[in-house]
Amino acid sequence: MGSNGNIGKNKSMSEGRELAEKTSFSISCVASIRVFVYPSGSGPRNIPKYTVQVINNSLQGVFNVHLDCGYFTSGSLILPMIFRRLQPGDCLVNDGKEIGPGKIIQFDYTNTFLDKFPVTRADCS
């Protein structure tokens, strides 16, 4: 009976380590992505235009990149395969596909406000 208890305990500890490794791995993926937003002129009807760059600074690919976008809207079209709002506070970059090391995903939007887009999730290849 004692050995069965230890096996279960060891299995549980092993699963805990795997979860911790996955979590820290995911956190490092998020930390390797930089998002820059800057003014870039005017759009239709003189609405301010902004450029967003999502940069993978990692040495490996990242995919399933999600940004916190609040109630983001744009007065100009953004291709949904580049950037789309899934629901309030959750936007998907590059249709969830891989962004290679050093690669940049860029899009423009028009709005009266400059938005910030913190990374909330990303997975490493």
Descriptive overview:
The protein has one helix at residues 2-31; strands at residues 33-42, 48-56, 62-67, 83-87, 90-93, 104-110, 119-124. It has 1 helix and 7 strands; from the N terminus they run αβββββββ. The N and C termini lie far apart (42 Å). The chain is elongated, with a radius of gyration of 19 Å. The protein has one domain: Sandwich (Immunoglobulin-like). With 125 residues, it is α+β, with helices and mostly antiparallel strands. It has a 4-stranded antiparallel sheet with strand order 4-5-3-7. Strands 1-2-6 form a 3-stranded antiparallel sheet. It is 24% helix and 38% strand. InterPro entries: TPD1. Pfam families: TPD1_C (PF24068). Keywords: Signal.
Query: DSSP helix count?
Result: 1
Look at the helices and sheets and give the structural class.
Answer: alpha+beta
Give the DSSP E fraction (strand runs of 2 or more residues): 35-45%
Output the helix-strand order.
Answer: HEEEEEEE
Gyration radius, to the nearest Å? 19 Å
Shape: elongated
Reported by name, the CATH topology is Immunoglobulin-like
User: Tell me about the biggest sheet?
Assistant: 4 strands, antiparallel
Q: What would CATH call the class? A: Mainly Beta
Task: Briefly say what this structure is.
With 125 residues, the chain is α+β, with helices and mostly antiparallel strands. It contains one helix and seven strands.
Layout of helices and strands:
Blueprint: H1 2-31, E1 33-42, E2 48-56, E3 62-67, E4 83-87, E5 90-93, E6 104-110, E7 119-124
Antiparallel strand pairs: 1-2, 2-6, 3-5, 3-7, 4-5
